[in-house]
Amino acid sequence: MNTPARILFGVVVALAAIWGWSSEWGQLLRGRWSFTQSISPDTGTYFRLEVKVTYKGEPVDFDIVVGCNIRRTGYKDGSSSVEVGMVPVVFGKRMPDNKGLVVRPPDACGGRYIKEGWIPDDLLPVMVVYDDADTLAFGTAYMSVDAYASSLSELRFERATIAAATRQEFDTFRKEQTNLANQASWRSVMGYRCHAYARYRIPEVARDLVHQAWPADHPRYWDPGPTPAFAAALWDAERQRDIGGPFRGRLGWADSGESPANRGVARNTGGGQIGPPQTRSINRWGPSYYPVYSDNNTGLKMPAHVKDWPEYIRGLPKFIGQKVDFQNGLTRGLAYCYIAPSVPDSTPSPTKQHWESVRAWNESPALHLVDRDRIIGASPRLANKVVRFIERDEYFFDIVEFYLEGTRGDV
């Protein structure tokens, strides 16, 4: 082999060695095997949420950097490490009494919210106080300024602001601050579904019809059924919150189709929520919320096997299907956050006995109450929720449920 050929051969061998050493095979030989195929460009956006409150008289500050649609890493086996949507979708701190104080940042993803002034000066995000910081299984959400003004309140709200942030600030935040809502709680027991009733005055257009339908013994709370004669006049009428003041829309977030977790809480005088100015009309106040819970959801120790659930419930002196915690209006502005126990499938596939047990559980007798008063006419079956009911011939209650988790959110 002549000299030029030897030089060319040596270059090829060297390049091959370099390629082999840096290839996956070479990394395997060195114990540095990597399955990584590609890392997509970072197209995420970021914002900083600062919240100041006092908890039982002591100041608590939150400085949270939220990432939106952030980098996704793909792997050659088809799997991926994904951080998309909002991260963190909730952020919490442990309080000195071992309760958990959690903030749900509004979904201000996308540059328009900050650039076009869609963040109000009176922003009011959803905040939740969880009874046990170790599990975050049951919490009380503050859904209006009424909640902070209540004598029951453990919180006083001061202010919240949102500003643009960077990936570097996001990475620093993730390294330096620990989220109380970790993966173990978020994926298992954390109460991220919140439950309440909105209470409204019965409008004049429906008052006579409701009065005529009021049962003869005039119960305080009564369920008229799904399609009463006054349904159209009442359900579709413009609504007014129970303590007065204008209110538009069927629910607090009906105009946008989003829950208060995504937009923030509507203040009683208007504002409080993110979004275009036309959706923050001063004439659209937030409704009056009252929290509701169920023995089916709030820590009741169900037997390990589904087949034993119906007999267990029947053996209880009473089982609460729904109970509105009204307290003569003292709980106005609150919601309770928890999750239902999942019904496990039998292995390897659900059997006839399994589904019979589930059906029997759903048909178990249950009480539907407002404080200690029964909702007359409500179905006695556990599975039948009371969606709407009437108070005398003056007010009606409409069920409200929303999630803290958001679209593709993570902690």
What would your notes on this structure say?
It is a single chain. With 411 residues, the protein is of the alpha+beta class. It folds into two domains: 43-186, no CATH class; 193-403, no CATH class. Helix content is 21%, strand content 27%. The chain contains eleven helices and 21 strands. The chain has helices at 3-22, 24-29, 112-115, 145-149, 167-176, 183-186, 204-213, 231-235, 260-263, 309-314, 352-362, and strands at 36-39, 45-55, 58-68, 72-75, 80-82, 86-87, 91-94, 100-104, 126-130, 139-142, 155-164, 193-201, 221-222, 240-241, 288-293, 320-324, 334-338, 367-370, 373-374, 388-391, 395-403. Mean pLDDT is 80; it is low at 4-9, 11-38, 73-81 and 250-257.
List the keywords:
single chain; 411 residues; alpha+beta; 2 domains; 14-stranded mixed beta sheet; 4-stranded antiparallel beta sheet; 11 helices; 21 strands; globular
- What share of the residues lie within helices? 10-25%
Low-confidence stretches: 4-9, 11-38, 73-81, 250-257
Shape: globular
- Beta-strand percentage range: 25-35%
Q: What does the radius of gyration come to?
A: 27 Å
Find the count of extended strands (DSSP E, 2+ residues).
21
Structural class: alpha+beta
Oligomer: single chain
